[in-house]
Specification:
The protein is 32% helix and 29% strand. The chain is of the alpha+beta class and 361 residues long. The chain folds into two domains: 2-130, Aminopeptidase (3-Layer(aba) Sandwich); 138-336, Aminopeptidase (3-Layer(aba) Sandwich). The radius of gyration is 22 Å and the shape is globular. The model has no long low-confidence stretch (mean pLDDT 89).
Length: 361
């Protein structure tokens, strides 16, 4: 078994090599690698990816995403665990430990884990370098009946009832569409500008927003990077996407970057991610007086795009959404786990939904 690590320059050489092109399974998609290379927080000597090979066959990999956080007015580097996979045929050969050991040795005191499978939590905590798992709570609002997707996936024993759920969903959605005919959407008084121009005006706006808040800091350059270098491309699965275990293509994947102006002054910013008829509020920068405008825009977007559901981790916005109950069927809590290094005073409340690699997936 051979374990190789890749820095920024090494990653570019790797994805352009014949070895990468000939691999049956790859440890990173080409466009995801380019995004890592373009990360404004990456340094040339950062190791971004470790891959394990046996007889030139990929059998596992683990990767990190460098980032900066501001803690006690001090800018500190952190590394988000961004992927971890081991071929099921080699899991008895201790591949996971052999991959994870060099990562922990180099970045252990600065490593953050989120968006992970629940059955891996015990393994992460057994290392002894993390605080107890903490959680941030968001809300998922369901706008259409989709029990034929949810229930059979959660309870495989009732898969034979899927045709019944399809019929129920169709009937229920017709009723919901009729009900919405009587709904009067809230008025948006702001000037809405959809663009990806993250200029000095935008940077000044972000800095003023962060002054009195304990959020992890994102700069204008980060939003430019997110929009220009996505990890998931819109389109149908093909041979290349099937070589990568995690998502690299989706039938629908796009961002909606929105600025709210009042009296020619930038008053709020919203970054929405839409994937396969599901919307996520990845970032929101808005004072309380702008929340009605922001919530109204989200509801309008959901209605115009005929989306199935949307997820919000800003409780201020969720409370505004609840004033428009006719726009959704039901809601449920969505808990997101964060495993933070010992000694860190950052809490899950410091993160927006899109922090880490969530905005990319």
């Amino acid at each position: 078994m051979e374990i190789k690590s890749y820095t920024r320059n090494g990653l570019k050489t790797f994805i352009d090599s014949e070895f990468f092109k000939n691999l049956e399974q790859i440890p990173i998609s080409y466009h995801r690698a380019i995004s890592h290379i373009q990360n404004p927080d990456v340094q040339d000597d950062d190791e971004l990816l470790w891959a394990a090979y046996k007889n030139e066959k990929l059998i596992g990999y683990v990767g990190v995403l460098p980032n900066y956080i501001v803690e006690n007015q001090e800018r500190k580097r952190v590394f988000w665990l961004s992927c971890f996979w081991v071929d099921e045929n080699y899991r008895k050969e201790n591949v996971a430990s052999l991959l994870f050991f060099p990562l922990v040795k180099k970045y252990g005191k600065h490593l953050i884990v989120s968006n992970f499978l629940p059955n891996l939590e015990k393994m992460y905590q057994s290392i002894g370098i993390f605080q107890p798992t903490l959680y941030k709570t968001g809300t998922q609002f369901f706008c259409k009946s989709c029990f034929h997707n949810i229930l059979p996936a959660r309870f495989p024993i009732i898969r034979f009832l899927k045709p019944f759920f399809v019929f129920f969903d169709c009937f229920h959605n017709i009723f919901l569409n009729c009900r919405k005919l009587f709904y009067k959407p809230p008025i948006i008084n702001s000037k809405i500008v959809s663009n990806t121009n993250f200029d000095d005006e935008f940077q000044i706006f972000l800095q003023s927003f962060y002054k009195n808040r304990n959020y992890v800091e994102r700069l204008a350059v980060h939003f430019d990077w997110i929009i220009k270098y996505p990890w998931v491309l819109q389109g149908k699965q093909d041979r290349e996407s099937k070589r990568y275990y995690f998502s690299s293509k989706s039938e629908q994947f796009c961002y909606d970057s929105v600025k709210f102006y009042q009296n020619n002054e930038l008053k709020a910013y919203l970054l929405l991610k839409i994937r396969d008829k599901k919307l996520t509020v990845s970032y929101v920068f808005a004072e309380d007086e702008m929340l009605n405008e922001v919530a109204a825009y989200i509801l309008q977007k959901v209605c115009n795009e005929k989306l199935i559901m949307f997820t919000v981790f800003d409780e201020r916005i969720s409370n505004k959404i609840r004033n428009h109950r006719i726009q959704y069927i039901f809601e449920r809590l969505n808990k997101r786990a964060y495993i933070l290094p010992k000694g860190s005073e950052i809490t899950p409340e410091s993160f927006q939904e899109g922090d880490g690699d969530n905005v990319f997936t």
